[in-house]
Amino acid sequence: MANLIKVHGSQNSFFILDQTKLKTALTDDQLRKLAQHLTNHQTGVLGGADGLLVVNKPTRPGALAQMRVINADGSEASMCGNGLRTVARYLAERDQKESFKVDTMDASLQVRREKDFAPDVPSFAVEISPVRFNKEALPFDNLGHDRLLGTPVPEFAPQLTFSAIAIPNPHLISFVSQEVIEGPLLGELGPYLNGDNPYFSDGVNVNFAHILGPNHLFVRTYERGVGFTNACGTGMSATSLAFVLLHGDQGAFDEPITVYNPGGMVKTVVHYQDRRYWVELVGNATFTHHIKVEEADLHQASVNAENCTITATGEQVAYEQFIRHLPKFNLSQRN
Ligand SMILES: N[C@H](CCC[C@H](N)C(=O)O)C(=O)O
Q1: Is the CB of 87 under 6 A from ligand 1?
Q2: So what's the ipTM on this one?
Q3: Which domains does the chain have, with CATH numbers?
Q4: pTM surpassing 0.95?
């Protein structure tokens, strides 16, 4: 038998598969097919998810394990902030450690357990980096700029300005009014820039942010390879960096920024150390279900309600209690 865990960070949900526990690791093509199958709201168990997080042996000295990120459409991403918090918790409990490094595609990232956000809402802090601004890092092209940082881009929306940050996955960020964040524009720009377009050849995660006050943001994201999600950890981190760079009167380096999202809330801290930016992302790492399944059903992407045993952890009740007390935004619809 093999195990999957259904998890979420700010209700950006994933399945975790620890391949070090399998007799035979899945091939890349099998991982892609499993991710598409498990996350699909029709074919997946528990209503599907936003992605598959794959745990492997470390790839660099000093790390405890490697995390790979497969989006719902089967594409692989270099990083996932909400997902890294849940993998950090999984590894902390698997290996009885509180602080360690996890290898991602571009870097080994520091993670550590934090004080619970609320009763039965475990919380982890994870390093989000590396950060790059140059167009080759996302990539983007045909915009007449090598970087976008609070830059008008009439091709996207005449009245808005945009920032492009690789953290290291690609993010496009715009600070907008509550009316715009609630409106249809994000649902138009997201699919366009992740479809056939002359600007982002690999697609891009699109984040609309509303400034609520000093060190307080609301961020809504249309994710590459997924669509609207309840939250995007790297999106909230990249947006926090753009916030302190462009709105220094309201967003401060080295201070906790509260970032609300349709699925809950995280804290970010933006750092500039040794001539590099990095962001600390702190938030819940909730495990909602444990799933037992035959290893063969993973290899064949044939997991379904009939051939697996699902056990709820009960943590979702505590998480919903936690978000009940958060400020309400009538933005939580995923249109
Ligand atoms: N869709 C993203 C990967 C998942 C990132 C997100 N779920 C997060 O928490 O950072 C991409 O293709 O770059």
Answers
A1: no
A2: 0.99
A3: 2-130+284-324 (3.10.310.10), 135-276 (3.10.310.10)
A4: yes
